[in-house]
Amino acid sequence: MKNKIIVSVKTEYLKEQSRMGEYVFTYHICIRNVGEQAAKLLSRKWLITDADGHKTEVQGSGVIGEQPLIQPQAEHQYSSFTVFKTPVGCMQGSYQMQAKDGTLFEVDVPMFTLAVQHILQ
Fold first, then answer.
1. How far is CA 36 from CA 1, 3, 53, 73, 84, in A?
2. Which of 104, 81, 88 lies closest to 5 in space, CA to CA?
3. Mean pLDDT to the nearest integer, 15-27
């Protein structure tokens, strides 16, 4: 288990920042290194899909302007946001990381839903 990264996500609808036809969501990411060596997050790739099926792909260096080095048994947390034209959407993606020994590896971020409160009940 040389390179083992666990990603968890919490989402929140930002009603105060939203307006008719624009739904603003924040997502809080926790990247936990449960492996045996430090790993640096080099880049990210997201596939963002709204309820109408419109897809947007976003990729870039690091996360929120950083390329954190995550030590074994440590974690890195950050928050970001996205805007949908629908009250429900989803995201999925991956991080490209580099282990301390130079090995490159991908970490999948499983699909998660962003939804206005109580809309899916």
1. 7, 7, 40, 8, 38
2. 104
3. 95
Count Cβ neighbours within 10 Å for each residue of 59-82 and write b for 16 or more, e otherwise. eeeebeeeebebeeeebbebeeeb
Helix (H, G, I), strand (E, B) or coil at 93: strand
Residues in a beta bridge with 92:
47
CATH class of the domain at 5-115: mainly beta
Token duo for residue 57: 């792909």
- Mean pLDDT over residues 84-110, rounded? 97
CB 85 within 8 A of CB 23: yes
In sequence order, what DSSP letters do the residues of 51-78 get, joined into one string? TT--EEEEEEESBTTB--EE-TT-EEEE
Q: Is the pLDDT of residue 1 over 80?
A: no
